[in-house]
Structures are given as structure tokens and as C-alpha cells.
Design goal:
seven-stranded mixed sheet; globular; alpha/beta; 199 residues; 21% strand; Rossmann fold
């Protein structure tokens, strides 16, 4: 029994925080898990910047409404889902992900949630579980699934390495250099082919 676990941002859709950094004119918000491996530290830093600039959920959701999946992502996902079970495991938040899931044909996603005040200020965040990508993969394995995973960032590496097969997709040169044993792909067709061979 196989199940494919995919990262969301950078793999199927553009990075939400990078899009919002451009829309808001705040370049510091371009920092992602490709740059900062500690997600809690990254999010606390982001929330501090939002507070400083009096920006909240509404402004981020307005940017997300304009984001489309990466070219070819939906077709890749559709074909993959015709072959096997697929779960998107992301460190993003339900309040960010829903419009993107609609554009991707409502795949299953496991993610986290934001704590939002009545005035729309994002006051905190609740992670579904500690080290959620790796923990989820191990849980799937414990109920009889062989996992195949793909992602692009530091927070995907344990998930990728834990399964029967794992692939980097559109990652950084540094991650490729640091993890030379992981096959790295740039095109959906190549990733699809590698997953098919692993199934």
C-alpha cells in the first residue's frame, strides 16, 4: 500500500509569503523554510513583522486569492491521484490553503491553523503536531502504508528521507549539495516518472 506525501508551497503553488512580501512591499517577508530551518522561529518573526506593519489575515488572504497553482501542477496532481493515494502535508495554515485547494481540485491536505483576533490580527499559530511532516509520515507507516515523499525545503527533508522513496523538487542548490543522495528534479514529468517507478 503506497501513499505519496507532497509539500505544497514551492512544489504545487508559489510560496505564499514571497507573494505577500511582493504585494505588501515588505521584502523581509520573503524569508521561507528554504532559508530558516526552524519553523517556529520563522513564524514568530513573521508575526512580529505583520504586527509592526498593522497587517492581518484579510490582507494575506487578498494576496492568496490572486495566486494560481504553478503551471502544470494540477495536471501532475490529477495524474498522480489516478495512480495512488496522495496527501499534501504542509506547514501552512487552513486559512491560507483553502482557496488553493479549490484551484487544485480539493486534494487532501494536512496543515496547521492560525489564531486570529476579532479585528483580523494574527496573534499566533497552532501546529497540528510537533515536526508534523515527519510525524505524519511515521504515523502513515504505522498503519501499513509505504510512503513516497517530495518537497523543496529544509522542513521536508526528514519526511523525504523516512519513506521507501523520496525526491527533492525545485529545491535550492545548497540543499542539493548538502543532500546529494536525494534525487532532485525540476520538471513535473520527471518527478511523476520517478514516483511511478517507486510505486
Amino acid at each position: 500500500m503506497n501513499i505519496v506525501c507532497l509539500d505544497l508551497e514551492g512544489v504545487l503553488v508559489p510560496e505564499i509569503w514571497i507573494a505577500f512580501a511582493k504585494a505588501s512591499g515588505i521584502p523581509e517577508l520573503k524569508r521561507t523554510t528554504r532559508d530558516e530551518p526552524d519553523y517556529n522561529k520563522l513564524m514568530a518573526w513573521r508575526l512580529g513583522i505583520l504586527k509592526e506593519h498593522h497587517l492581518g489575515l484579510k490582507e494575506i488572504q487578498e494576496t492568496i486569492a490572486l495566486i494560481d497553482p504553478l503551471p502544470g501542477a494540477k495536471e501532475f496532481l490529477d495524474e498522480l491521484r489516478s495512480l495512488t493515494q496522495v496527501i499534501i502535508i504542509s506547514d501552512t495554515f487552513t486559512q491560507f490553503a483553502s482557496p488553493l485547494m479549490e484551484k487544485l481540485g480539493w486534494p487532501t491536505i494536512f496543515c496547521n491553523s492560525l489564531e486570529v483576533a476579532d479585528d483580523g490580527e494574527i496573534t499566533g499559530f497552532r501546529m497540528r503536531i510537533e515536526d508534523s511532516k515527519y510525524t505524519t509520515v511515521k504515523a502513515l507507516q504505522s498503519i501499513g502504508y509505504d510512503t513516497i515523499a517530495s518537497g523543496d525545503s529544509y522542513n521536508d527533508l526528514k519526511m523525504i528521507e523516512a519513506g521507501k522513496a523520496g525526491f527533492l523538487f525545485r529545491t535550492t542548490e545548497k540543499i542539493k549539495a548538502d543532500y546529494p543522495h536525494l534525487p532532485a528534479f525540476e520538471e513535473y514529468q520527471d518527478l511523476l516518472q520517478a514516483i511511478k517507478q517507486a510505486l
